[in-house]
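Hey, I'm writing a tutorial for new members on how sequence and structure tokens pair up, and I'd like a real worked example in the thread rather than a made-up one. If someone can provide the structure for the chain below, I'll link this post from the tutorial.
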Amino acid sequence: MDGSTDWRAMTDQADGGRTRKMMEEFAPATFEERGVTVPFTTPLLSQARLRRDQNEKFEFLLPNFTAGKGTYVLPWKGLPSVMTLTLHDRLLFEAIEQLETHSPEQIRACALSVQATGVCGPDAATRAAELRDQDAQYLVLTQFILVTELLKLVNISAADLLRPGMTADDSKRVARQALAKVAGMVDIQPDDMTMRVDQLGEAVAPVGLPHAPKPGRLRSLANRLDAFAQGTQHFADTDPSEAAMLGTYVAAVANHTLTLARQRIGKLDAACRDAKQIINDAPSLHKSIQEFVARISWLLDGWEFLIVMWESVKDEPSATRQTSITDISRLLPMIPKEEISAAAEGLDLDAIQRLQKRWVRMNQDWRTGVLDMDAVMRLEAMKTAMG
């Protein structure tokens, strides 16, 4: 009995036979069907995707669960029966259960909160605190830029708020007075104007404004995805082994995702370009920004881990890169049909599947569900490096 058969029997027993194995390549219709990536540290759950089933209960999509073709779908309650979960993963799931909705941004915030407790060690806790502080600082920057754009409408520039000799309180006072003047232009309350700026800043901060002095987190991630696509394509062009085909596949999906993400970023930037919208039609602008940022976040969901994987081996010997590109190819975030997925057009997917099975590394710990602590530590280290 091979490892795949063992797992099928174990998982069927764990959830009363409801486990489904999708025999064809997983091609979701929507982002919700694809699920959101959860940064678990149990090796078998690495890059698992969470979604709700038809009964609104949690289930997880596990790509390449047995190193075979397709994606396994397992309910949360069945997982402890087939694998040993880390304490971090149990705590993270408990926190996720308290969320009303499950977007990539919400899962990230939830994961950072758990990581900050120190359950993954002091280094991970310090990194979580740093990332949360960076988010807070970037939000302040984004809101400041929105304020300065509004102040231009009454001929006040950022320099006017930062004149020599002015204290922070002086700058805030001048800004409040100017915003009150802007609010008066459209007959709204100054507090309402401040609330609009705060809400718009919170909505756009994950991507950042196009004229910000440094890019937002998701805009930076898109730039890293660009470098990743170029790097994996270079591997495909220069590697003499059959793994080069996988490099082409990975680069194609990355490039298609990047194209779609940048289209969304371009639309977001266009929506944020006119400060007058903040005073004339703030509710409509806020809704548009939320939709654009959500789409960008969903498109890029799951890619950072793969980028970190590649960055960690790109200068290693060929054999290491060949193995890593195979692992990456099995974990690719497939683009939903609603996003006009055509990334794999012209590629021999059957041949790619055969290559993946040939290159896969199977060890006894993965077959039995016993925690491979070295693998857990590697995953925790990689996820600590993520933003």
